[in-house]
Write a structure and sequence with these properties.
- Helix 4 packs across helix 6.
- By secondary structure, this protein is an alpha/beta fold.
- It has one domain: Rossmann fold.
- The chain is about 40% helix and about 20% strand.
- Strand 2 and strand 3 form a beta hairpin.
- The protein is built from seven helices and six strands.
- Strands 1, 2, 3, 4, 5 and 6 form a six-stranded mixed sheet that branches.
């Protein structure tokens, strides 16, 4: 079955010698955003079509705040983690072989933490969503996906903003023309 909006079969993307798929262990970076939800849908499709194990990784970032100790970098971290936990439970309930790992970091950021988890687990692929920052905003804001491309021990699949899981290319083109 083709991926939504891509028009290609998974085994056309990465065929193995036996005609199956060579990705068996996937690390899925989730942060509770809409962008990571799209990545979740792609990972779910891969797992449904193949015998794939998904290791969901959520990274809690903390900054050192002097005498105050460490503080989360996002004020809504508890809410985001609850979203990721719910997504993980829903994925498991749908029959996908999956686990959730929540890691904390004060240095290196989420990209390094996700890459470390992928290496530790022997992952074949990392899947993440991307917010689509380009130009100056991408340079100033930085990009977990961009950094991950440089530090990852395995291939990275970045699911872009314009891709909507479960929609055909025709539906997406129509939606794009309307917006």
């Amino acid at each position: 079955m083709p991926f939504p909006d891509c028009g290609v079969m998974l085994n056309e993307l990465v065929p193995s010698s036996n005609g199956g798929v060579m990705f068996k262990k996937i690390v899925l970076g989730l942060d509770g955003s809409d962008e990571s939800a799209r990545a979740l849908e792609f990972a779910k499709r891969m797992a449904a079509e193949n015998a794939v194990h998904i290791d969901i990784v959520h990274v809690r970032e903390f900054m050192v705040a002097g005498r105050a100790g460490v503080q989360p970098t996002r004020a809504d971290e508890e809410d985001l983690e609850a979203i990721v936990r719910r997504q993980s439970e829903e994925l498991a309930a749908s029959g996908v072989d999956s686990t959730l790992t929540v890691v904390s970091t004060t240095t290196g950021g989420p990209a390094h933490a996700i890459a470390d988890q992928a290496k530790e687990r022997g992952a074949d692929l990392i899947i993440v969503g991307t917010r689509g920052h380009t130009g100056l905003s991408g340079l100033l804001l930085g990009s977990v996906t961009q950094r991950l491309l440089h530090v990852s021990p395995c291939p990275v699949m970045a699911v872009p903003r314009g891709v909507a899981a479960g929609r055909s290319s025709e539906q997406t083109e129509t939606a794009g023309a309307v917006s």
